[in-house]
Request: fold
Amino acid sequence: MTAKFITFEGTEGVGKTTLINNLEKVLTERSLDFIRTREPGGSPFAEELRKILINPDIKMVDDSELLLMFSSRADHVEKTILPALNSGKWVLCDRFTDSSFAYQGFGRGHGNPQALAKVQFLIDNFVPRLPDRTIWLDFPVVEGMKRAKKRGDLDRFEQENVAFFERTYQGFDYLATHQAERFKRVDAVGDEVTVLNRVLKVLDLPML
Reply:
């Protein structure tokens, strides 16, 4: 089977980690070779930038955040994602370019054309490989924030207010509408198996 690049998106607390854990088990049982990675992060240099990006004690302007995200991504793609795909492995990535579009373009930039143009410029010029399929776990914003708070200390993004995450949600909704062939909305309300089966169907894999 041809290697596939699958990314997972959503606002905070939607269940991405649980889903990817369960999907890992399915791919292992079906003898599919894969790696699991994340953003920001995914390579040694990118993981160092992650520490800065999620540190709640660090204040930065929006453009600095955006550029750090893409600096991290550039290293991640070259060091981790492309080598895995070129060797025939699937790549399961927790967040990718669509998070930048939603978080920085809509959450920070309120979806205005200038903000979206900045994000799109960086995608077009510094990201050589887009995902084959993106799974958007669609879950109520407020409920997801409650889940995130239960996990413990909140990082710099998790500390944002409801209005920020509602704008971010709008960004994901925009992508689901305008890039529907790649970017797939999956209802994340339900038990683990139900959500996993919805994702397996989107990925054209046999359901449980």
In short: The two ends are 20 Å apart (CA to CA). The beta strands are 5-9, 34-38, 90-94, 133-138, 183-187. The chain has a mean pLDDT of 96.
